[in-house]
Amino acid sequence: MTQQVPLLINGELIQSRSTTLIQVTNPATQEVIAQLPCATSEEVERAVAAAKAAFESWKDTPVGDRARLMLRYQALLKEHHDELAETLSQETGKTFEDAKGDIWRGIEVVEHACNIASLSMGETVENVARKIDCYSITQPLGVCVGITPFNFPAMIPLWMFPMAIACGNTFVLKPSEQDPLTPMRLAELFKQAGAPDGLLQIVHGGKEVVDQLLTHKDTPAISFVGSVAVGEHIYRTGTEHLKRVQAFAGAKNHMVVMPDASKNQVINAIAGASVGAAGQRCMAISVAVFVGESREWIPEVRDALAKVRPGAWNDPKAGFGPLINPQAKERVLHFIQEGKASGAECILDGSECVVEGYPDGNWVGPTMFRNVTTDMSIYREEIFGPVLVALEVDSIEEAIELINENPYGNGTSIFTSSGAAARKYQHEIKVGQVGINVPVPVPLPMFSFTGWRKSFYGDQHAYGKQAVRFYTETKTVTARWFEEDIDHGVNTSIHLR
């Protein structure tokens, strides 16, 4: 019998009373591996109420105790690393190595949360006026909400709830309905680490559940990662209800190739960054901009991509796995057909990809276009598949102008041996995360994930110091004490007035 994914409410795994069930399938086989209930309105209400009740004691828990919880949690995540990666692989289709990377990048954020004592320190100035001191302190917000996507079912939840809880909040997580088993296991390990009941709740479902969390009077902060359309809805709805929102949305990431770059490094970087995880990364390189004579390398890039083959999660020779579901595959195939119809030259076509032994998998092979113009849909839209488009320009100035005119600003990179070119690029480009000879510049957790423009709606970004600012409020105290009120002890002298 297919398992039904439970909810987590007030420390207990419970079976939902919902009759609306979503099938969770293995993307390589279409085998149903679980059934996911869409939580009822009453169950969502119970989850928020449990988190609110737990907040009353958790907010006063000493910061050292919060840090020690995260220390125990990161140790358990490391202990169960491969087990988590196997579960993640089977429900997302990722290769085992890719899944392990997903887990590890999440663990790094939990390690960062262990530093919460120093991260949440306030500021003090003595004698802002005569014998008056001023200092600031950070305090938690309450019940925070996380809405996470399918493509990183470990890393992105771990971006959110460990930092929020370390700051003194409680948390309600609504993971993707397409791969909920990994987040549920993360929650079980969190409870095993000693998390008090009610700190972390998990509810499942679609738009109705999300909207209930967005509009609930007891959820002051919302974190989201996903598509542009949903991100805009999350941001508008949340802010209309006077909530603090961080919404990470779509991307169209460009990699600029200068003619003085190392050709071998460029080819290897593009191959991995464009089709890794089947292109289902918000930081995937989906556009390569060849400057000047570097355009002569395009055939070699195509040849390198052609050698990367998809396969099942446990195939050690597979470069990437299937797309998450048949609808995602059809969407990518539609873009490939649009690219051909618009006049782009398809120099590598993965439309008819077949993986032996897995005839029902959502396979699309590496695909590459050249002679692409910026008005084509394959350039304008985020394809979210293993499709690379190549543009050719004559100068770095043209490359910068082209990228700055694109509405997205998540990540970009430049490959060059010129420090001057790299300096010019990082200074003038209007993108939040820049790599120099690094194809996928996702920052480590001591920094923050800083998408710009249409890739992000909000003010404070994920993890790093900005996460602490997002999940806390600052209180400023101005204090004056009167020296004449100092009690020097018992005085038995008789004072005449």
UniProtKB/TrEMBL annotation:
The keyword Oxidoreductase applies. Gene3D superfamilies: Aldehyde Dehydrogenase, Chain A, domain 1 (3.40.605.10), Aldehyde Dehydrogenase, Chain A, domain 2 (3.40.309.10). It holds the Pfam family Aldedh. InterPro entries: Ald_DH/histidinol_DH (IPR016161), Ald_DH_C (IPR016163), Ald_DH_CS_CYS (IPR016160), Ald_DH_N (IPR016162), Aldehyde_DH_dom (IPR015590), MeMal-semiAld_DH (IPR010061). Keywords: NAD, Oxidoreductase. Residues 15-477 form the Aldehyde dehydrogenase domain. PROSITE patterns: ALDEHYDE_DEHYDR_CYS (PS00070). It comes from the Bacteria. Its EC number is 1.2.1.27. The keyword Transmembrane does not apply. It comes from Marinobacterium zhoushanense. Belongs to the aldehyde dehydrogenase family. This is methylmalonate-semialdehyde dehydrogenase (CoA acylating). Transmembrane segments: none annotated.
